[in-house]
Amino acid sequence: MITDQTIRNFLEISYAELEKLNLELKRERYQNEEYFRKKLRPILENNDKIKAVTVCFADLEGKLLMLDYNKNFLLESEDNLTFDGSSIKGFSSQNQSDLRLKIDWSSFRWLPSDIFGPGKVLMFADVLEQDGTPYKSDYRSLLKIFLNELNKKEKLTVNVSPEIEGILLKDTDAEHRFDEQKGLELVTKGGYFNSLPQDDLRLFIDKVAEVKRALGYENEKDHPEVAPAQFELNYKYTDALHAADQILLYKLICRQVAKSMGCTATFLPKPKMNINGNGMHTNISISKNGKNMFYDKKDIISDYAKDFLTSILYHAKDICLILNPSVNAYRRLDPKYEAPNEIKVSESDRSAMIRIPIGNEQSARIEVRSVAPDCNPYLELFVLVKAGMYGINNKNTKSVLNKREKLPGNIYDAIRYFKKSKFISSIMGEENKNKYVSLKEQSANRCPKELGSLVKLGEIIYHHEITNQYLWSKF
Description:
Layout: H1 4-8, H2 15-27, H3 33-46, E1 52-58, E2 64-70, H4 71-76, E3 81-84, E4 98-110, H5 113-116, E5 120-128, H6 139-154, E6 156-170, H7 200-214, E7 219-224, E8 230-235, E9 238-239, H8 240-260, E10 263-266, E11 280-288, E12 291-292, H9 303-314, H10 316-323, H11 329-332, E13 342-346, E14 352-355, E15 366-368, H12 377-393, H13 411-420, H14 422-428, H15 430-444, H16 457-461, H17 469-472
């Protein structure tokens, strides 16, 4: 009997084979993009079961954007992939709308067909101007250029491993249908380490872990977090650029798996009051010719690392709007819930902005704790590494260690520090700085100025990862 599946017969690969294929590509990421292009383009050309390429990029606020190209069209038009940038918030103006996409072949991933559909593979792309130069507001491109310069000039590699927390909610599209009086309903009351094996939360975590493993994340541990219905699935560090790609894919996977279960995975920093919020602790180390520059066998961390982290603290107020980019993010910085809102470093105090975990020669690192999961990961890492390297090259940032200050407690104060920051102007440029702050002000102005004790409608439906044209028009 001829079935729908036998008629189509598109590519479907087992999870075990997917893991093998994706890890093989991951191990070769030290190679340049042209190496991957020469290796992978013939595979696309010759594999009749691949029908489409899912191409991903991000807007200025870090919202993942995707489009599927017919495989043959992409191969024929690889050097002329264009899109309307004026339709994306924070990108080009209407009179200069056309932008280009340049495929990054080193980001190639084989995909699980039950999540993405059969016959598809995925790659990220960099956004280019009409003349082919990197687009000035695409922080994937800017992060890549900066990291390549560090590697070329100083032989440095930035390694990153994020710890991304989310909360599983009842019902699909729960954020879009948010009711101030009812709030968001959690899928379970279970919390840290004690979710039963067949609870919806545990089933969700297990499925997400399988997908991550298949995509080559190299899982480490998966568990419910402190808050009820909260989850965190940890995985191995990788280079900073592909770590940022993985953050966006991780959130996409969680949302898709949740939807298939009739639920919603939310990465709002504080979707519900009186429980712990969602963070994205960002672990960073720097290696040079394979040697961890943050390790010191005589101390918990090297002087090099101390200069790096001290500079992040020195610029903490300036960069807070990038690490915590939404009205809702400032609810999370509440000291009653282990909030990392103090501009200090500590080995154990979880209120500190930066923690130094126990480590060895391989794992010595810093953990930047005051990062919300709704930030733009490319912009976040661009700014954190820029700030850290400023401290390596300038030894005038240590005065911050003698102060006891807190991060801004609301988005309006964060915007004020961001606007007046010469450091932000120097690394982002005035045009990007103004674009970014304009987007943040637009959202903030649709919310009550005082946070209060109730999560408000505006901070949910006008959130940059949730809103769409229809919701935005309801103001």
